[in-house]
Q: What sequence folds into this?
């Protein structure tokens, strides 16, 4: 495919995304914000997946970031902006410590432990009511930027920009080689001088920080947090479904998947309330069975076949 | 100069002694054959030296430095490289990208420098069309790529675990010549595990023979191949 054409398309899409508040009303903006939030989470999930590690802990780090931001404002008197940065730093520091414990685990053992982590965080928050507000959660005095619809939209878009930049950074650097080698075969990766634990730790901390950042942005956009809202399993499952549908091991895949599934969910919500979750489940099954590399993988296969026919 | 010194190296797998009290050394510029019947401990030996598994006892010294328990990635950086009997090319990476990995991580080269070095290395081994997916390679190309991947570490000790397996005789001869010239050019100490005795005869300066984890003979191939204990180990007690 033509590289410059792709660049142009990406630049146009970016410009359109930034300019969206100029010609979209409150409802489309709200939908777009949602899609963007999940898109960013899907990208971070995929970034770690490139090493072969399947994390079910997105909601855990997202929730940790959310609570770090809320409590940073309420208990430490931070400004909302500072609290968002604090959310990223806190989730990053937490994942650094957790990484030492769990990054020796592989395959389903790693996945199950990350799943349990989210649950542990939720229970801890539940049971420290004096500090965290307990099951009822905590409410901020106000929403960041006085709740301006375009302001909140741009803030979320900023979160996505961070995720995109990190993901491209991974793709264009030695990180790409490290993660791909680890995913393929750890023994041979070691023989090429790759310190597996170190690279996994970097990938885990980077992706977790961004997930925490997004949690901070989310909670500052809504002005409250409860354990059940910010540790919601959907923050794990929807990004996962989006990345699978769009195509894993790429940046473009999760972006495509998030747009398709995000818009489809919005439409389905109106037709069959809660039924959209069933559709999600069906999509995951169909994708895994029939196109394990997602839409992007399918497109590449088709265009590759076309190239071969021409040649 | 002695590159690698193995002292009383022993490795047990739950009661089975895979390598028992083996001592020898590998010298700069020397190609050493490691032979023995199936299960003799040849691959165990390569795994121990490259750090994929750790010994039960004994000592491994690399250029005078104790590396007995050093992690594998550190040994790769120090200058020990190996190929694998079961090849695993990295999917989703092209031929040249496969070769770049060792240069990036074992040598700490940037991506550009690694690509340049990988290109030179591939050219030296006669590999072409470097942007190709590894699934499109022939067996000979895969074997060459495996050697290139190991050489990308810029090693001083190179361990080849049955790289000739699956090649026809012309291809084998070609690869033997390549290994010889590379070893000479770079002053490598090469360890070769191989089942085909013709390869060992042509390629190696010296041979060690393992049987059931024990070193039973060493010396030039012509000498070792006449050793009655070696003949017995290969042909069984009846011979």
A:
């Amino acid at each position: 495919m033509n590289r410059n054409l792709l660049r142009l398309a990406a630049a146009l899409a970016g410009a359109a995304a930034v300019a969206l508040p100029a010609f979209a009303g409150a409802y489309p903006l709200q939908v777009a914000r949602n899609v963007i939030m999940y898109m960013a989470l899907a990208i971070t999930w995929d970034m770690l997946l490139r090493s072969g590690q399947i994390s079910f802990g997105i909601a855990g780090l997202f929730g940790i970031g959310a609570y770090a931001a809320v409590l940073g404002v309420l208990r430490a008197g931070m400004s909302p902006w500072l609290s968002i940065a604090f959310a990223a730093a806190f989730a990053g520091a937490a994942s650094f410590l957790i990484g030492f414990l769990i990054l020796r685990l592989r395959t389903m053992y790693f996945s199950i432990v990350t799943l349990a982590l989210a649950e542990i965080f939720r229970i801890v928050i539940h049971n420290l009511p004096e500090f965290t507000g307990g099951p009822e959660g905590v409410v901020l005095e106000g929403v960041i930027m006085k709740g301006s619809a375009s302001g909140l939209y741009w803030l979320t878009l900023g979160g996505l920009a961070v995720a995109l930049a990190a993901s491209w950074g991974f793709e264009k650097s030695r990180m790409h080689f490290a993660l791909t080698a680890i995913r393929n075969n750890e023994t041979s990766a070691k023989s090429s001088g790759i310190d597996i634990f170190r690279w996994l730790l970097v990938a885990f901390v980077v992706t977790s920080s961004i997930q925490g950042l997004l949690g901070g942005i989310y909670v500052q956009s809504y002005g409250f947090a409860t354990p059940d809202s910010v540790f919601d399993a959907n923050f794990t499952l929807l990004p996962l479904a989006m990345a699978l549908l769009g195509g894993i091991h790429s940046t473009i895949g999760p972006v495509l998947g998030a747009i398709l599934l995000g818009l489809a969910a919005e439409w389905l919500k109106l037709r069959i309330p809660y039924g959209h979750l069933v559709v999600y489940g069906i999509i995951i099954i169909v994708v895994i069975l029939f196109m394990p590399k997602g839409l992007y993988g399918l497109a590449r296969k088709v265009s590759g076949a076309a190239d071969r026919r021409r040649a | 100069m002695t590159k690698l010194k193995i002292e009383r190296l022993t490795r047990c797998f739950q009661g089975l002694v895979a390598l028992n009290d083996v001592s020898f050394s590998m010298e700069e510029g020397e190609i050493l054959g490691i032979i023995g019947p199936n299960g003799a401990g040849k691959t165990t030996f390569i795994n121990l030296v490259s750090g994929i598994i750790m010994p039960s006892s004994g000592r491994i010294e690399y250029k005078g430095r104790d590396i007995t328990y050093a992690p594998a990635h550190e040994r790769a950086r120090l200058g020990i490289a190996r190929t694998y009997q079961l090849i695993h090319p990295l999917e989703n990476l092209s031929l040249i990208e496969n070769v770049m990995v060792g240069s990036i991580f074992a040598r700490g080269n940037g991506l550009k420098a690694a690509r340049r070095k990988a290109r030179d290395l591939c050219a030296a081994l006669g590999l072409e069309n470097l942007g190709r997916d590894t699934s499109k390679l022939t067996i000979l190309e895969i074997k060459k790529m495996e050697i290139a991947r190991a050489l990308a570490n810029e090693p001083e000790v190179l361990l080849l675990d049955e790289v000739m397996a699956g090649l026809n005789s012309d291809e084998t001869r070609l690869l033997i010549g390549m290994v010889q010239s590379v070893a000479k050019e770079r002053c490598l100490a090469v360890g070769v595990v191989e089942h085909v005795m013709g390869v060992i005869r042509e390629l190696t300066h010296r041979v060690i023979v393992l049987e059931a984890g024990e070193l039973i003979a060493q010396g030039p191939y012509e000498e070792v191949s006449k050793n009655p204990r070696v003949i017995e180990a290969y042909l069984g007690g009846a011979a």
Chain B has one domain: 2-88+155-235.
